[in-house]
Amino acid sequence: MRSGPSTQSANPRWTRHLGPLLLAWLLAAAWGSVVQTQWNLQALVGLGVDIPAAERARTTWQDLAGFAPVYAGLLAAGWLPALAAAAVLARRRPAWRSPLLAAAAGAGMVAAVRTVDALAPMPVFIDATREWPGLLVMAAGAAIAGWLYARLTARRPAQKNALSPGLEHSGGSP
Questions:
Q1: How far is residue 155's CA from residue 167's CA, in Å, rounded to a whole number?
Q2: CB atoms closer than 10 angstroms to residue 120
Q3: List of residues 6+ apart from 44 with CB closer than 8 A
Q4: Half-sphere exposure of 107 (CA within 13 A, CB side)
Q5: How confident is the model at residue 167 (pLDDT cuts 50, 70, 90)?
Q6: pLDDT (tens digit per residue) in 46-96
Q7: Where are the domains of the chain?
Q8: What are the backbone angles phi and psi of residue 67, rounded to the nearest 5°?
Q9: How sure is the predictor about 115, in pLDDT bands with cuts at 50, 70 and 90?
Q10: Which of 12, 26, 39, 102 could form an SS bridge with 147, CB 3.0 to 4.6 Å?
């Protein structure tokens, strides 16, 4: 069975984007998990609870193992439509690609969190996002991850011919 030209050209591009997207997604999930953990622990400190550094570290690792996967699913739900829309816009405005993908990643995270908050029985799903400062810190992590994805998948300028630097080979005489 032969594949058509569109299948052959689409596969390398798809695989070129998958690794950077997964890396950015994991970065955003880890960032959000650490932020929400430290935000919650700091709220306890504000109530007079002493939390030693070792306890902060243990709790952070537990949340990276337990909460980060849940948050990663939430991110994926927000990122899918947001990054797709940003990619379409970036095709029309290639110079805006990095800021568009960064903004879309942050906005997709906020939209997903606010949607879950509206549907969940508790007042908020992630306490750190209850107020704007915590929501913005978590969105910043998603935006940084979106920017990283954009940079890792940016098109590189074409390399000049190594045999004749500075000259383009046109098939005729130089």
A1: 22
A2: 11
A3: 51
A4: 12
A5: very low
A6: 999 999 999 999 999 999 999 999 999 999 999 999 999 999 999 999 999
A7: 19-152
A8: -90, -35
A9: very high
A10: 102
Q: With b meaning 16 or more CB within 10 Å and e meaning fewer, what string describes 53-80?
A: eeeeeeebeebbeebbeebbebbebbbe
The three-state DSSP-derived secondary structure of the chain is CCCCHHHHHHHHHHHHHHHHHHHHHHHHHHHHHHHHHHHHHHHHHHCCCCCCHHHHHHHHHHHHHHCHHHHHHHHHHHHHHHHHHHHHHHHHCHHHHHHHHHHHHHHHHHHHHHHHHHHCCCCCCCHHHCCHHHHHHHHHHHHHHHHHHHHHCCCCCCCCCCCCCCCCCCCCCC
Q: Tell me the average pLDDT of the chain.
A: 87
What is the value of pTM for the model shown? 0.80
Higher pLDDT, 113 or 13: 113
The Cα 73–Cα 52 span in angstroms is 31
pLDDT band at 156 (very low <50, low <70, confident <90, very high): confident
